[in-house]
Model the fold of this input.
Amino acid sequence: MREYFTALVKGRRRNPGTDPISSWIAVWDDLEPDRAAADEAVFHLALFMVLAALETTSHVLAGAVRLLLEHPRQRDWLRTRPEHIPGALDEVLRYDAPIHMISRVAPEDTVLAGVTIRENEMVQLMVGAAHHDPRQYADPELFDIRRRSPHLSFGGGIHFCLGSALARMEAECLLTALLQRLPGLQLAGAPGWASRVAFRRLITLPVARA
Ligand code: HEM
Done:
């Protein structure tokens, strides 16, 4: 990927087009007089974009299938009510957030929820735990696609996920097609998980057609 994106940025520098890489080069050229540093910044942005998009979305797609197959009554209810797919997806995002931990560095001394945080200290916001906080969600361990509760899976504030609409569209397409085309799909074994903290990842999800 490093080679691919380095070559892509160089190519767009030589022959700009109307694509995102060319637009980012134009923006960075206004900010950064050193062209090599601007290209380096665009390279990191392109790489970040792919990682931010693929890792998270692939988890939510696999996670949505897993949770619906683990709850066949809800899966069958949803098949006849596709208009509830967006709400079901929000429950998947609450129940099993693809990113369990968001990091921030305090710009100044502050107090957060009664805890003193010093300037430049890093704070890890535990999204996965927040989504299972009984003070925020009634019966949080219950997977309920009719819950329609807000969640933090796409972050919040100025860094709110750029690709949330795309990720939702991908997941809605997948679930719509899956429920119609493979109505008898079922789990054929226990899912396998990567041993990680921040980014959730299913490594295997054995399924079978009925
Ligand atoms: C279900 C899928 C996704 C999830 C759960 C997700 C989650 C997140 C979260 C939690 C953040 C905030 C990080 C922070 O505050 O530090 C974020 C930011 C971001 N996401 Fe996503 N994301 C998803 C899909 C995508 C896709 C498909 C793209 C690109 C096409 C994307 C691009 C980005 C970018 C560029 C940012 C940084 C925004 C900024 O800092 O201003 N994400 N995402």
Observations:
- The chain has seven helices and eight strands.
